[in-house]
């Protein structure tokens, strides 16, 4: 079998696998990537040293909509993936572990769900795993993206998620996740004043001092996955019991398992065999996922600029365009004479919907006009970044598919993301745990 996998640039070698097979590789040219991603593809040849045991008969298509098949069992607890009926079914279809070879796993989406899926799958894997994460964007984060000023990369704004609210329920349920991020300082308690924020008893709020995308980068690093940006997946086909995944640029790649973590409408846009693999019932469930839309505008100022307000963030209730403003560095307790302040504005959903198809340049102008009414006399920013969030926050999650939706077994094709739970940190954790539960006996 010829596999393709990544390895340090220019290296070649031979490696023994845990199942007794050996793996040899040689350098080969491959797709160019940016940032943290590794850039060199190599061809690898897997030479089995012992006969491979035949797998159990194909488990066939999942019956996603049925109570007795893959839907949640009656009384299932959304936060506890172990309470879902699917886990029993997955275990029955498990091939013996000892003789399984390396699995190639693709995760589409380098947002919170995708990055956490990668980290969880890596931890749970009982065999060599080649993990790849592809994202159509130029950087990690998804809706937890942090933009930098082109003049000073240390001046940043969170364009999507602003802070993380941990309820008493999730403080217990997801304690290990919070601990893991609090210990190295990826998350810190939110101490700056946010005017108009609704604080419920027992809730704790956290910010990411290095920007909210540092959470995603933490998980991507932990996963050891090969992360490729500007890889827009367009088609998914079934070829010899593997997923052949096509992207806008670059050659198709084959994977044993694929996990899709993009918003539901973007899953429905994919072409190829996937179109016919989605059952009518699953299609309806995916179509039922709805999102709000809004814009975010990031403004970067010169070092030394003073923005003289007594708050770090403010919810606005009296403006048709602006819903939220944050002095982003102040929100994260970063005030320095060398780094200019940064500000982020979120529009109202009604403004977002009205101007959804307008150009971001026009929308930016309208937001700046309204900002002048709220904060008159602000200096000129040195750089701006206007972001359209067509799929901002989930207003209606997929019915009857808490956490994940398994589109196909053997090979596995699973969807996850906040569209199957709720639009926040804990929603994404819940979804990633459900994806893990569906796949854990197969990795
Ligand atoms: C304005 C705003 C404010 C928010 N505020 C908060 C908050 O304060 N607190 C909070 O907890 N949550 C907040 N949220 C919600 C939170 O950001 C999301 O719930 C979470 O980021 C969703 O993560 P995800 O990984 O499921 O999806 P995403 O972050 O959307 O990740 C999906 C990824 O898939 C990629 N992708 C899509 N299609 C393709 C394709 N065809 N090929 C390759 N890649 C593709 C996208 O580029 C994206 O990176 C906010 C969201 C927004 C937009």
Describe this structure in words.
This protein has 443 residues and is of the alpha+beta class. The chain has 2 domains: 101-138 and 229-289 and 397-442, FAD/NAD(P)-binding domain; 146-212 and 290-396, Polyamine Oxidase, Chain A, domain 2, CATH 3.90.660.10. Helix content is 23%, strand content 27%. The protein has helices at 86-92, 112-124, 168-173, 175-182, 213-223, 264-268, 274-277, 280-287, 328-331, 349-354, 360-374, 425-439; strands spanning 2-6, 13-16, 22-28, 41-47, 103-108, 129-134, 146-148, 156-158, 164-166, 188-189, 194-195, 204-207, 226-228, 233-239, 242-247, 253-255, 257-260, 290-291, 294-300, 313-315, 322-327, 342-347, 383-389, 394-396, 404-408, 412-416. Strands 13-6-5-17-26-25 form a 6-stranded mixed beta sheet. A hairpin with a 7-residue loop joins β7 and β8. α2 (112-124) packs parallel to α12. The two termini are 19 Å apart. The model is unreliable at 1-93 (pLDDT under 50). Bound molecules: flavin-adenine dinucleotide. The site of flavin-adenine dinucleotide (FAD) has 39 residues, from α2, β19 and α12. It comes from Neophocaena asiaeorientalis asiaeorientalis (Yangtze finless porpoise). One of its GO terms (cellular component) is extracellular region. One of its GO terms (molecular function) is oxidoreductase activity, acting on NAD(P)H. Residues 206-403 form the Amine oxidase domain. Keywords: FAD, Flavoprotein.
What's this entry about, in short?
This protein folds into 2 domains: 145 residues, 3-Layer(bba) Sandwich (FAD/NAD(P)-binding domain), CATH 3.50.50; 174 residues, Polyamine Oxidase, Chain A, domain 2, CATH 3.90.660. It is 23% helix and 27% strand.
